[in-house]
Amino acid sequence: MYAIIKNGGKQYKVQEGDILLLDKMSLESKTAIEITEVLAVNNGELRVGTPFVAGAVVKAEVINEGRDRKVVIFKKRRRKDSKVKRGFRRDHTRVRITAINA
Question: I need a labelling partner for 10 at 20 to 30 A (CA). Which of 2, 35, 60, 85 fits?
Fold first, then answer.
C-alpha cells in the first residue's frame, strides 16, 4: 500500500515505515502529525483525487529537525570577469510514516 502526498509544493510517494525529509514545520520530536493532502492512494486499486482523495489521511511521527548539506550555486560568465558564488542550506523536518488510512 502506498500513497502520494503533497507537501511544500512537492510530491512524495510514501509507504508505511518510510523516512522522508519535509519542509520545516517547527515541531518537537515524537509529535504525531496528519497529512490530509493525499493526491492518490493504492491499496490494491488506485484511487486518484480531484485534487485530493476524500477521507484519506497519512499519519506520521516527527523524528527531528535539521539542515541539509550546503548546495553551492556558482555562476560564471566567460570573458566578462563576472562570477557569483552563493550557498544554500535547506531546513527540513525528518518524519517517519506510521499509517496510511484510505
Answer: 85
